[in-house]
Amino acid sequence: MLKEMMLLTLLVLFIYAALGTITPGNKVKGKSKQLKLKNGPQNVSVYDLDLIEAEPSAKDILINCQAYFKDTSLRNFNNTVLGYVTPWNSQGYNVAKIFTKKFNIISPVWFQLIKQAGKYSIAGDQDIDSSWITEVRRRGDSIDVLPRFVFEKFNDRDFSLLLSQTTERAKVSEVIINICLQYGFEGIVLEYWSQLTGRVDNKFLINLAMDISKALKEYNLKFVLVIPPMRKELPNAFSEKELDELYSYVYAFSLMTYDYSSVHRPGANAPLYWIKQTIENLVPTNSRNFNEKRQKILLGINMYGNDYTPDGGGPIVAHQYLDLLRHVKKRLSYDEHDEENFFEIRTTSGRHYVFYPSLYSINKRIRLAQELKVGISIWELGQGLNYFYDLF
């Protein structure tokens, strides 16, 4: 009897011991499910890792998205690349420094042209970061820093005078030139067309661009004009006719081929077929001076996405996208018509219908830019994922 009790006790102890070894093992296994995220420079690129997939897994994106190939001087796209940087997104400043050699033009969104008491002046100079400019120039072989300017606090009379009188355009040009010379900028990016189109005849908008361009050229300063994409609601906003008149005056056209959809019409940010149609309408294949015109167009690529919800939703950038992506268990869907990735999830905050760039969708747009012989403009640096820049 004693012997049987001892055997029973030993058996119980053995079972407890076995359970003791299994339990920690289970905990370790649970921890192993936590993703080991990569970050910073790596010895391999997204090409080496075969990450450019039509339907990438959420897991692969989360693991690799903040890493990038260590040789950031390697370029896979040799036409002009412009990258915008905004003062409200500090990550963009870092991206511009890390990947400087991927870009030809960096455009900090700093300045507003304003009119007060009958005089033109510049607002936004408090955002100028001289040390950052110096660092970007040090890292880039031949980088141009062309800050973006917009018109603000202009009433209808102010615009009327500016558009109708050459003396007023000369005054605006002088203000722009002075700040370029003061800070050593190589020129400017000017955005006004979308603001004014449909309100005045396009010939006035053409004259404004021509006169500012002529004034800048006297000081060897470059002029990039921001232009709207093809829109059904504004079919003649900027067409082949306007481009024909302006291409010899303009260093490049920054084409805003994004924001195709909205909370009122959810969907892709920039359908590929729409981008292609927009460029082919601006410069048809039978166009005179075809190559010169095409190389001046900078196809716009958005680095932000959109999160559509029952309440509307809105634009999202990298960290917001990754927070949503963590709810995705499988692979992202691919819209073969618009050629963008998306996913649908339900969280404690409700349903989400998310469109955001992927390696695959960006690669498709870079290849389209190569096919159409155009450059690229990126809105904006810091909104996307680090490994996107392996593609450029």
From TrEMBL:
Residues 1-20 form the signal peptide. GO terms for molecular function: chitin binding; oligosaccharide binding. Pfam families: Glyco_hydro_18. Residues 79-392 form the GH18 domain. GO terms for biological process: carbohydrate metabolic process. Keywords: Lysosome, Secreted, Signal. It is found in: Lysosome; Secreted. InterPro entries: Chitinase_II/V-like_cat, Chitinase_insertion_sf, GH, Glyco_hydro18_cat. One of its GO terms (cellular component) is endomembrane system. Belongs to the glycosyl hydrolase 18 family. PANTHER family: CHITINASE DOMAIN-CONTAINING PROTEIN 1, CHITINASE DOMAIN-CONTAINING PROTEIN 1 FAMILY MEMBER. This is Chitinase domain-containing protein 1.
